[in-house]
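<discrete_fold_record>
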Amino acid sequence: MGFVRLAGSIQFDPLDICGRNTELALHARVQGYTQQTLWDLLYRERKLVDYFDKELCIFAADDWPKFARTRAHRSTYQRSFEKIEPAIPAVLDALRTRGPASAKELNDGKTVHWYWGKTNLARATLEYLYYAGTVGIALKRGSIKSYDLIERLLPQALVDAPDPFPDEGAFQRFLLLRRMGAIGLLWNRASSAWLGLGDFKAPQRQHAFDTLLKAGDILPVRIEGLKDTFYIRAEEAPALACIQAEAPRCEALPPLDNLLWDRKLIEAIFGFSYTWEAYTPVHKRVYGHYVLPLLYGDRFIARAEPVFDRASQKLTVRNIWPEQGIDIRQNPYRDAIAGCMDRLETLNRQEVNTDKNTSFTKKA
């Protein structure tokens, strides 16, 4: 929870080649992390919630009121809404009557054109209501999501809390600080880190940076050899000295890791160019399907393609590509990478107890 609050949110992606994006991001940062920990925080204790921040993310449930504008925006017209709207009352009534349900359980055979193609109407309706914040994810078992009314998942005080931001500018400044905490530092340039901030072009961005600088909420940072000015949250200035004193360790970062949200920033600072090729046609891939950057201390030393086989419970590294000037056959890199892959295999061997006979609505 400490890391989630520090980072704001962690991006979710359903692909599970050697662990999902959220699990890999937490595994790289939280000593002793287990998949059960995340599942419990999301679906037992409800201290975390699945919803949109940068994109689909998990974040602290206490932050739910802060995304009122996001929910309002996503509740506006969606694809095939003319077919979804008449189905909403029946879906909500079914949830009120029976409790958590999946799209499969509510499927009445009708189909609709949704964002990735044709799907059943129940699924599109549930997802629309999820976008709007009317329902939330009660639990996930693998890739199957069960939804329930949001007031049965979160405390009523959070559900009823008003938007804490008086205007769009205040909301954007909140998100700017949040993304700065997620990545570590940012620059005042166009960036994929600004996804979810709405109309955040150069004038709005400049105004947000100026306001936060004047208030003392952010501080400028210079990096030797680079002309750009970077910014950190003022509250994190003491962390710079702590980071420099840490012993280096090797961690495998997932493709949508917070640190990689601004690929141009990472290339400028670390000289490391990374493209996620999972959705790139095979003949156009430079590396592989699900390739993880390997960070050792303050350097990206390689990228690896680990694959976990559920049947054998073994992790295989299909390939590894060292960065220029890095000999991964020599220590300290060899042992550090081997230890990193061993820990990754251990993570993937874990089983999550979902207690199928337990109700996961909030406690009174």
Notes: The two ends are 22 Å apart (CA to CA).
